[in-house]
Design goal:
The chain is of the alpha/beta class. Helices cover 39% and strands 21% of the residues. It has two domains: 265 residues, Aldehyde Dehydrogenase, Chain A, domain 1 (3-Layer(aba) Sandwich); 185 residues, Aldehyde Dehydrogenase, Chain A, domain 2 (3-Layer(aba) Sandwich). It binds NADP nicotinamide-adenine-dinucleotide phosphate and magnesium ion.
């Protein structure tokens, strides 16, 4: 019998009001049924928002450092349950066990950071222009936060949103991606065991259209934090724009790694392999373009091909596996479609380009790591986010051309430059259009306490991670206290 999971709404575990359900299976083995989950709709969302609004009345008045103590306890519980969470996460979404351990560690770091931040919440006081008057600021919670997450970081991304939202004093309605509902459930269990008031965290399972949309459109939700594709992000932004609702968007990427002729090539290969094929290429920060200077191009490509051929595909909970499956059959078809487009566009495919079906791999959604060379920047495979184990190599003549190719994309999330020339490194840091630039490191590897996000179509100007996440979930309030005992008029009395 498959395990039956529930929503958590209004302080209790419950089925979807209409009683519908959906299945969740292991992408490395379709026969492995993880569980049956409630397929919720607007009615469930309405209940969840109502409960969150109720909880907000008291939660907002709890001193922030006390909320921080709960975050500390949550971090401790995550440490205790780390391996169990990671094993189930690998089973649920496919990336290898060391990576799901890392995903969980990011949640732990985010919890402990939240505890620290709860004692800071710095808000400047500045002098008033008038005598016997004080001017200061404070940070207020917003109310109900709607949190909508993708499946590729099933623990880290929800914690990036939920921990700051709760620490700021908001109540939360959380919709995990329907590909990873079990990890979402494990997180909510930890929040409750850590002492978050039950009605302040509500979990509603279901799809983007049946749960995500009603949450976005609910008039009593004050802020939406969304991570996912740019296509969906745009739709959500339109809906929130109509209601003047605050929204934070973390969207797609088409991240590039530049390799210059003066780079340490071994290091650049290590970075490229990890960046392109880690998490089976399904990271928003995945390296999907390698921009290589012509003098080292052929050598770099030979080394990359040799190392790529050695990557072992398989179930991520098994020892020695480098690359897991892709998330589902729909995504595998999209990846394969891009590969066919690349071939039609005239790019040269060096390896991969096929479903991997040997032995046990036939049970899951595996795709062979794929490298294209002879790619030019205007090709579709150099422009669109593929979100799978496919990397394109673009040959460039100079450093200036490398930067202009890197910037030639609608997205602007992560970027990387391998060079030993300090002048090139600093020019890259200044001139690359991206939210994140790594020097001599791959495009992936964000740390939880630094701002995370991108420019152009990657987002709308917010940054998660670190102190900037707290800006998303709080409102500034400005306070003036006049103790002069008379009417004082700013800009008038002082002319
Ligand atoms: P997605 O299809 O946009 O879905 C993201 C989430 O939104 C899921 O929970 C989805 O629900 C929900 N959703 C879908 N349509 C919706 C709608 N109309 N209204 C409200 N919610 C809706 O993205 P994905 O395929 O899960 O994730 C991959 C994408 O996320 C890539 O583009 C990747 O670059 C991006 N990403 C960005 C970051 C970043 O920080 N910049 C991090 C990770 C991933 P269901 O899936 O359950 O239907
Ligand atoms: Mg699944």
């Amino acid at each position: 019998m498959a395990k039956k999971y529930q929503n958590f709404i209004n302080g209790r575990w419950c089925d979807a009001i209409d009683g519908e359900t959906f299945e969740n299976r292991n992408p490395a083995d379709r026969d492995d049924l993880i569980g049956i989950f409630p397929k919720s709709n607007k009615k469930d969302v309405d209940e969840a928002v109502k409960a969150a609004r109720e909880a907000f009345k008291e939660w907002r008045l709890v001193p922030a450092p006390q909320r921080g103590q709960i975050m500390k306890k949550i971090g401790d519980l995550m440490v205790q349950r780390k391996e169990q969470i990671a094993r189930e996460m690998t089973r649920e979404m496919g990336k290898v066990f060391t990576e799901t351990m890392g995903d969980t560690q990011e949640g732990i770091d985010t919890a402990y950071y939240a505890d620290g931040e709860s004692r800071r919440f710095f808000a400047p006081s500045v002098p008033s222009e008038l005598p016997n008057k004080v001017a200061m600021t404070t940070r207020q919670p917003m109310g109900v936060a709607g949190v909508i997450c993708p499946w590729n970081f099933p623990m880290a991304i929800p914690t990036w949103k939920i921990f700051p939202a709760l620490t700021c004093g908001n109540a939360v309605v959380f919709k995990p991606a329907s590909d990873v509902p079990a990890t979402g459930t494990a997180l909510v269990e930890i929040l409750l065991d850590g002492g978050v008031p039950p009605k302040a965290i509500n979990l509603v399972h279901g799809t983007g259209s049946t749960v995500g949309s009603p949450l976005v459109e609910h008039p009593d939700v004050d802020v939406i934090s969304f991570t996912g594709s740019s296509v969906v992000g745009r739709k959500i932004a339109e809906a929130c724009g109509r209601d003047l609702k605050r929204i934070s968007l973390e969207l797609g990427g088409k991240n590039g790694q530049i390799v210059m002729d003066d780079a340490n090539l071994e290091l650049a290969i290590d970075g490229a392999l990890w960046g392109a094929f880690g998490t089976t290429g399904q990271r928003c920060t995945a390296t999907s373009r390698l921009i290589v200077q012509e003098d080292v191009h052929d050598q770099f490509v030979d080394m990359l091909l040799e190392r790529t051929k050695k990557l072992k595909l398989g179930y991520g909970n098994n020892e020695g596996v480098d690359v897991g499956p892709v998330i589902n059959e729909g995504q595998r078809k999209i990846i394969h479609n891009y590969v066919q487009i690349g071939q039609k566009e005239g790019a040269r495919m060096l390896c991969g380009g096929q479903y991997a079906t040997d032995g046990d791999l036939a049970k899951g959604y595996f795709y062979k790591p794929t490298i294209f060379t002879d790619v030019t920047s205007e090709m579709c495979i150099a422009q669109e986010e593929i979100f799978g184990p496919v990397v394109v190599v673009i040959k460039v003549k100079s450093f200036d051309e490398a930067i202009s190719v890197l910037n030639d994309t609608a997205y602007g999330l992560s970027s990387s430059v391998y060079t030993n020339d300090v002048n090139r490194a600093f020019r890259a840091m200044r001139d690359i259009e991206a939210g994140i630039t790594y020097i001599n490191g791959p495009t992936i590897g964000a740390e939880a306490h630094l701002p995370f996000g991108g420019v152009k179509d990657t987002g709308n100007g917010h940054r998660e991670g670190g102190w900037t996440a707290y800006e998303i979930f709080s409102e500034w309030k400005t306070l003036y206290v006049d103790f002069s005992g008379k009417l004082q008029r700013a800009q008038i009395d002082n002319q």
